[in-house]
Amino acid sequence: MPLKKEVYAEFQDIVGPENISEDPAILDSYIYSMSQTALHMGPAFKTYTPRGDAVLLPGSTEEVQ
User: Fold this and answer.
1) CA distance 47 to 50
2) pLDDT at 9 (0 to 100)
3) Which residues 6+ apart lie within 8 Å of 30 measured at CB?
4) In sequence order, what DSSP letters do the residues of 4-65 get, joined into one string?
5) Which of 33, 34, 30, 25 is nearest to 57 (CA)?
6) Over the stretch 19-55, which tens digit does the pLDDT of each residue have?
7) What residues pair up with 56 in beta bridges, in sequence order?
8) Is the backbone of residue 55 left (phi > 0), alpha (psi -120 to 50) or beta?
9) Statement: residue 6 has pLDDT above 80
């Protein structure tokens, strides 16, 4: 489910347009393997985290708060 445009705009107002992205190539770079934790769950278990709806890179504690 994609991030609603209103929510994206709110986040963009906080972190700035250069610090938020919905680009699939960027989102894929934040997917990581859970193979060490998935070993006991069997071969049907997906071993990668799901792709997020957006990536935010806050630049300060205030932006996170």
Assistant:
1) 9
2) 96
3) 52, 55
4) PHHHHHHHHHHH-GGGEE--HHHHHTT--B-HHHHGGG-TTS--BPPPPS-EE---SHHHH-
5) 30
6) 999 999 999 998 877 765 555 665 656 677 788 999 9
7) 20
8) beta
9) yes
